[in-house]
Amino acid sequence: MNARDAVSPLLTLLQLARRARAAATLEELGFVAVNETLQLLPYRQAVLWSEQGLARVAAVSGLPQPDPTAPYVQWAGKIGRHAMRERWPAQGFGAVDLPEPLQAEWSQWWPEHALWLPLGRPGEPADAGLVLVRERAWPEAELALAKELADAYGHALAAFKPRRSGLAQAGSWLRGGKARRRLVIAALVLCLVPMRLTVLAPAEVTAKDPFLVRAPLDGVIDRFDVQPNQPVHAGTPLFSLDITSLQARHDVARKAYDTALEEYRQSAQAAVTDDKSRIEIALSRGKLQERSVELEYTAQQLARIQVKAERDGVAVFADTSDWLGRAVAIGERILLIADPRQVELTAHLPAGDHIAVQAGDVLTLYPQGSPLSAYEARIVQVAYRAEPTAEGFLAYRLKADFLPGQAPPRLGQMGTARLEAGWAPLIYIALRRPLVVARQWLGW
């Protein structure tokens, strides 16, 4: 045999595989399988059995369309059902390999030797088969070519297979073996393992019972005498307001008082000899008292221009440049005087992650920049409604006291608080957020 004769079967194999993959319908593919396979393997008859849709003989060589009521087609269909049920591999077979009811009619329809080729993708059960029959046996060389061709036909046949649903695919995967079923059972058991329901919330160490320093009156802040986080004592000047306008009002009030006092003196001297002046002295006295009250009020306001600390602690505010030259209203918050040893934890539990927490529960603070540190705190207050935070999300404010026996964290320390609720299955914890989003989106 020369090289050309050796390569010719391979070229024919490639052409048949290309023709099979180019088939537009299942009928066209069946025609190629039962008729054009003759170009590669000599045989007398070919029958294609398929389980796609209704299990049947899909094609017979030499016939444009097989008649399902024909005795030959019915007998060949029984052989296809038997081979598919027994899951035959690619092999030659004869009448002796069939049940007795099928052996009796073998000589009537087929010659002595037949070849069964299951058609399916590797790793998947075949749902079709091709039978080739002839008078002589099938040697190993032809059997190897037939197997390769069967792989190509099976790949082409898979294109016409209806897409299975996810449930059907899962069922097929589970039927693949005991290891898969055990894996699924283990996954189901793992999903039911109870775990603590935990939520993370941003938190900050804040002052406990701080003294709030407010603006004593309307004005403009002129000077700050302390720096952020500076320790102060009772009586230490904190900041001062601009006295320009208030000093002018005080000067005007003093001049008005002096004028009213002079008028009152003149009225008192004239009243000694003039009866009419005795009547005007009462008006002068009232006007003098009015100017005196106004002068005293402006003097008191001048005395309040400089604000001093009323107790020991540290001055808690952001930056002096945020306040210098800024107009403030009476009662507006300026800074806090806090004891750095008296701190508490303020956490903001996002409304979307709300869990059942209450006073008395313990949470854990993980401070930023200190991955090896953690602080335990007991919740003492839970807000009854969610409020917008500075970051723009709705959250429930929580207050917690740090447990004794641990050094308190630094005032102003930021971190993340971990809150724990009851026990829940792992599958619920994993799907909790997606279920909440789906419920809000679907409205159920």
C-alpha end-to-end distance = 77 Å
Beta-strand content bin: 25-35%
The parts where pLDDT drops under 50 for at least 5 residues are: none
Largest sheet: 6 strands, antiparallel, barrel
Number of beta-strand segments: 20
Helix segment tally:
11
Calculate the mean pLDDT score and round it.
83
Rg measurement, Å: 49 Å
Return the structural class: alpha+beta
Q: State the share of residues found in helices, binned by percent.
A: 25-40%
Shape: rod-shaped
Reading side by side through the largest sheet, how are the strands ordered?
A: 6-15-19-17-16-20
Tell me about this structure.
The protein has 444 residues and is an alpha+beta fold. 38% of the residues lie in helices and 27% in strands. It has eleven helices and 20 strands. The chain has helices at 3-21, 26-35, 71-86, 100-103, 106-109, 140-158, 166-174, 178-191, 244-270, 275-303, 426-442, and strands at 45-50, 56-60, 91-93, 113-119, 128-134, 194-207, 211-214, 219-224, 231-232, 237-241, 306-308, 313-316, 327-328, 333-338, 343-350, 362-367, 375-382, 387-388, 394-402, 414-425. The strands form four sheets. The chain has a six-stranded antiparallel barrel with strand order 6-15-19-17-16-20. Strand 1 and strand 2 (56-60) form a beta hairpin. Helix 9 packs antiparallel against helix 10. The longest helix has 29 residues, at 275-303. It starts with a helix and ends with a helix. The model has no long low-confidence stretch (mean pLDDT 83).
